[in-house]
Amino acid sequence: MITISRTFTVAADVEAVLAYLMDFGNTNAWDSATRHTVRTDDGPLAVGASWHNTSKILGVTSELTYTLQVVERDRLVFAGRSEGATSTDTITVRPVGGGSEVTYHVELEMHGLAKLATPVMRMEFEKLGDETAAGLTDALNRLTSAA
């Protein structure tokens, strides 16, 4: 299993951060591996909402279906599944100063033959973790300038 976690602070308040991150479709704006993410259901953003995500990592395109599993006052959990991998993305947000501290934690398990690539994928995900934290910090800080 690959586990990556990044913690960073942003100027936006907890409510704005959680509202933005609750829509997994926003990965289009801040996840460098994401090629596109599209909502696959209708209705309000709530537990059970789902998205189809297409990403490209190390030249390989992967497609996962993500479902919003947990919505709490300070935490969101998304579960992504495909034949080749299972991903659990947990986002925790707490107030700090005039903004928020965000912890983005990913647990990725490769399945089948893809499991053989776990050591290489671990190194790539460490790099992607840094890129994602930077992209997400920029996107969340823009929420305060848009308000």
From TrEMBL:
InterPro entries: Polyketide_cyclase/dehydratase (IPR019587), START-like_dom_sf (IPR023393). This is Carbon monoxide dehydrogenase subunit G. It holds the Pfam family Polyketide_cyc2. It comes from the Bacteria. It comes from Actinoplanes digitatis.
